[in-house]
Amino acid sequence: MMLRRLAVDAAVVAALVLATVAYEDQWHVIARDQLEIAKMAAELGVPANFWRTELIRWMVASAVGLTAMLVRSRLPLVALAGATAMTVVHARSLVIPFMPVDVAAPIALFTVASGSVRRWVSYTALAVTFVCAFSPLLKPVKSSIQTTWGGGTFVPPTVVAFAWLFGDRSRTRRALMEQATQRARDLERERDQQAELAAAAERARIARELHDAVAHGLSIIVIQAQAAAGAMERRPATARTALSAIVATGRDSLGEMRRLLGLTRPDGPELAPLPGLGDLPTLVERVRATGLPVDLKETGQRTELPTGLALSAYRIVQEALTNALKHAGSGATVEITVHYGHDSIEVTVADTGPGAGGPPDERRGNGLRGMRERVAMLGGTLHAADREAGGFQVTARLPHPEAE
User: Fold this and answer.
1) Is the distance from CB of 388 to CB of 358 less than 8 angstroms?
2) Most exposed residue of 48, 152, 220, 259, measured as fewest CB within 10 angstroms of its CB?
3) What is the CB-side half-sphere exposure of residue 51 using CA atoms within 13 A?
């Protein structure tokens, strides 16, 4: 980067020198005829070495100014000071007029204005350079000498002003571009964070679905296995029925696990739809096969529900049945009521078991906590507590988003 900047600065200096040489070859301002110089000096009454003195001073100033321009990118204020001093010396010359090399001062001012220096530095540089632009008006010389030898003026103040304006505009535009770039980076970072949060939420959802599916399937399998073990010797037919139920339940659970895990594979095979309230009869029959009497009732006018709402209602019923299988005990019955309202759906699962004996502890296990998370995600309400007549009841009210 530093070498490239140095190369650019050297190229600018070379361009100024070449332009000055070309101007000199065209007009022969510096390399005048010595006889002509001596004659003009005698007519004006100036020393014979006047031309040479002025020429040496012009060249020394040019060397200082162009050397300072070599550090224009790294030290713009140094370049501006050197270029301005050079051009002031040139402007006060009585023998050499304005030359292309004097454009170095506006170029250096442009660099200062477009750089990342503080604003007061830029304004100060403009003021100093602008004042120097009027220095030729202070020449304590005779007009006849200036007219005869040529002389010259500093770069016009308008050029100085335009150089600063262009540089300041460049700085402003670059600052706006940097802000836009930073904003784009922030938006990209925010997008990535949102994607990570969405992925985490999806993983949590899949984990919750797996818990509900596996817990329900394993509960049925354990109960059926216990029944098969108890009836193995005296009731072989009952044992075979229980083992067949275990096989069917295991296959269903594995199939649902494959379906849920397959949701994370974009190139996976086409999968069966997720379960909904239409699959409750199958779920009820599976639970009945374990020996737990279950009654399913539907009230209201059945309507088509969004997939997420129907899935959540199904999982709530499934988890409530799983809890009944675990805790209701033998001789208990379960009643499931699904009410289709105008703007919501209400699911109630009540059993006649011993109940929880007080407020249920949701810190133990994931069943009730998972149900509450599902209901909260849909903006509904969940009530889980012992019944006054005995047993335990879960009631979930899920609002219908399309009816709002």
Assistant:
1) no
2) 48
3) 20
Which is higher by pLDDT, 382 or 376? Answer: 382
Nearest to 104 by CA among 142, 73, 62: 62
Residue pair 237/344 in contact (Cβ under 8 Å)? The answer is no
Nearest to 71 by CA among 1, 116, 160, 10: 10
Taking the model in full, what pTM does it have?
0.54
Residue 382 is encoded by which pair of tokens? 């969940």
Q: Dihedral through CA 252, CA 253, CA 255, CA 256, nearest 10?
A: 120
Question: Is-contact 168 113, C-beta < 8 A?
Answer: yes
Say how far apart CA 391 and CA 394 lie, in whole Å.
10
Residue range 274-321, pLDDT digits in tens? 788 888 998 898 888 888 899 999 999 888 888 778 888 988 998 899
What would the pLDDT profile of 205-227 be if each residue is shown by its tens digit?
666 766 676 777 777 777 777 77
Instruction: Please provide residue 49's backbone torsions phi and psi, each rounded to the nearest 5 degrees.
Output: -90, 15
